[in-house]
Amino acid sequence: QGKYTFADGLDYKDKKWHYCDGYDRRFYAEICSGLKPAGISQHTNLDPPQKIPEGCYDCGDGFYNPETRVIVDYKLRFLRNADDDEHEWIIRTCRKAWDATTEQKPKP
């Protein structure tokens, strides 16, 4: 029994949970305040987003340094060491501090 409300005001529901379900990709802030015009879209629920330290990733509850495999909170206080699974997930899915160009390779 009980209720969980995230820091941004989103109420968690264990049944009929439609937030971030693959059909509606908006952040909670966008659900509440509306979408921004094309070209200035939000990249995180927080707008403007946290500035990520050089060489690190934003993993949702803090920053991850893949060299040290340490996650710190947004005030740079130690949270935890990442295991192999978390490391791979962060590298594959999280926002990073640098831009990387990708090349479109033509199909043969």
TrEMBL record:
Instruction: Report the protein name in the record.
Output: MORN repeat-containing protein 5
Q: Does the keyword tRNA processing apply?
A: no
Q: Which UniProt keywords apply?
A: Cell projection, Cilium, Flagellum
Q: Major place of localization?
A: other
User: Subcellular localization, per the record?
Assistant: Cell projection, Cilium, Flagellum
**PANTHER family the record matches:** MORN REPEAT-CONTAINING PROTEIN 5
Coiled coil ranges: none
Q: Which InterPro entries match?
A: Morn5 (IPR042814)
Keyword Zinc annotated: no
Any one Gene Ontology cellular component term annotated for this protein: motile cilium
Q: What top-level branch of life does the organism fall under?
A: Eukaryota
Q: Locate the transmembrane regions by residue number.
A: none
